[in-house]
Amino acid sequence: MSKKIWKYIFLFMVAFLFQLIFIRYIEILRWKPDLILIVIVMFSIEYGPSYGSTAGFITGVVGDLASSHLIGLGALSKSITGYLSGSLSRYFKERSQFILTLALTGFVHHFIYFLVSTLGKDFSWHIIMFVYIIPNLFYTVLVGAFIYYFLINWLKEE
Amino acid sequence: MKFTPFLLFYRKPLFLLTIYVFLSLLLMHFNDPASLRVISNISLQVVEVFANIRHDISLWKDYQEEAHRLREENARLKLANQRSREMMLENMRLKKLLNLGENHQYNFIAARVIGSGIELGIRSLILDAGESDSVRENMPVINGDGLVGKIISVTPDQSITQVLMDHNSLVSARLEISRESGVIGWDGRSWLNLQYISRDVAVSFGEVVVTSGLSRIYPPDLRIGVVSHIEQNDYDLFKKIRVTPSVNFEALEEVMILKTAGLGLTENLTSE
């Protein structure tokens, strides 16, 4: 396996641990960045939709096992996100590729997650969209931009 | 490059994605964490290891600060005050928990919150008590302020708690004064909703809402919150009641797990 793949595996592990242990300290009104999603998008842009959907599925299952929601829900939303990130990113210019891909596929990820998790429940989509999806996505894109531009040179080294 | 949607669907990646979607739906259908127990055990063990490292580093930093404090008298007094406050607050929380134990005479398992789940919009809790500590699924979780939630998943040394502010959480509850029963649920806002209270029942602002004891999971009279808003229309059968939760879910550090699940609610009460 190439050195770059190991770097991404390390990033996934750090993102997973940070998301479970430390993310509550940077939460704002229950809004939090999805670090695992950020790494999935970075990985998918680099390696394409097959690898992206695989990474999304695996990290989704592992994340589901450490949470209280349906097992498989995270796997579903993240595998679709990985696929879309790998497929759509090549249509964006390199300069803004990561941000636009993260924003678009992040929206799809959050939408699928809330669509499935609130099925059959009395939830207002107005609240879901403006209280959860958009603020969480905005926070994720903000943190994602910072992480990406900070790490991109290190990740590109072989 | 011209956008050509057809190309998106013409490759092996789509076949892989189809498999993953199918597997995800299968997992959701069975929703059985026991079948993936090994992965769950490993991931939660790793979380606890790093949470303990974080905790030890925090303590080590405190000791360093205390050494600095001894060298400078002014800074020492301020830091000592801050440290005393933290311990006093922790003492108050633990005293509340002990007091609750004495009043209710339940068996408790003390646990520390070591992490939170990665769900969007809600925050489940990862606790450092598991099967080896006699924790079982569906055991209620409380703190000194009231009901936190219930245990939803257990590994040998950790467990995951579903909190009240979770769209999958439904708790049978009762108004403390009128004794009318309803169901506590959550719809994504910053309060809980008490449902199925008849329009004819008198409800007061500030009235305490407690568990009803009608379910097999939660013993009676565990504090849930207080009534903060009441709404009623002429054509509704039920009142719309908002309940402000007693527990501050943003700042949970220690909790107590009630040993009630699987044994019947009365079997685990100590005799007076």
Number of strands of chain B: 12
Q: How many separate structural domains of chain A?
A: 1
Question: What is the CATH first-level class name of chain A?
Answer: Mainly Alpha
Number of strands of chain A: 0
Rg from Cα of chain A = 15 Å
Quaternary arrangement of the chains shown?
heterodimer
Largest beta sheet of chain A, briefly? none
String of helices and strands of chain A: HHHHHH
Shape of chain B: globular
| First-last Cα distance of chain B | 79 Å
Q: Structural class, from secondary structure content of chain A?
A: mainly alpha
Query: Which range does the strand content of chain B fall in?
Result: 25-35%
Break the fold down into its secondary structure elements and pairings:
The complex is a heterodimer of chains A (158) and B (272).
Chain A: H1 3-21, H2 35-47, H3 49-65, H4 73-88, H5 97-117, H6 125-156
Helix pairs in contact in A: 1-2, 2-3, 2-4, 2-5, 2-6, 3-4, 4-5, 5-6
Chain B: H1 5-8, H2 12-30, H3 37-71, H4 73-104, E1 108-116, E2 125-127, E3 140-143, E4 146-154, E5 159-163, E6 171-175, E7 181-185, E8 192-198, E9 208-211, E10 223-231, E11 238-245, E12 254-258
Antiparallel strand pairs in B: 1-2, 1-12, 2-5, 3-4, 3-12, 4-5, 6-7, 6-9, 7-8, 8-11, 9-10, 10-11
Write structural notes for this entry:
The complex is a heterodimer of chains A (158) and B (272). Chain A is mostly helical and 158 residues long. Chain A has a single domain, classed as Arp2/3 complex 21 kDa subunit ARPC3 (Orthogonal Bundle), CATH 1.10.1760. Helix content of chain A is 75%, strand content 0%. Chain A contains six helices and no strands. Chain A has helices at 3-21, 35-47, 49-65, 73-88, 97-117, 125-156. In chain A, helix 3 (49-65) packs antiparallel against helix 4 (73-88), helix 4 runs antiparallel to helix 5 and helix 5 runs antiparallel to helix 6. Chain A starts with a helix and ends with a helix. By secondary structure, chain B is α+β, with helices and mostly antiparallel strands. Chain B has four helices and twelve strands, in the order ααααββββββββββββ. Chain B has helices at residues 5-8, 12-30, 37-71, 73-104; strands at residues 108-116, 125-127, 140-143, 146-154, 159-163, 171-175, 181-185, 192-198, 208-211, 223-231, 238-245, 254-258. In chain B, the strands form two sheets. Chain B has a six-stranded antiparallel β-barrel with strand order 1-2-5-4-3-12. The model of chain B is unreliable at 262-272 (pLDDT under 50). The chains are: A mainly alpha (158), B alpha+beta (272). Chains A and B meet through helix 1, helix 3, helix 4, helix 5 and helix 6 of A and helix 2, helix 3, strand 1 and strand 5 of B.
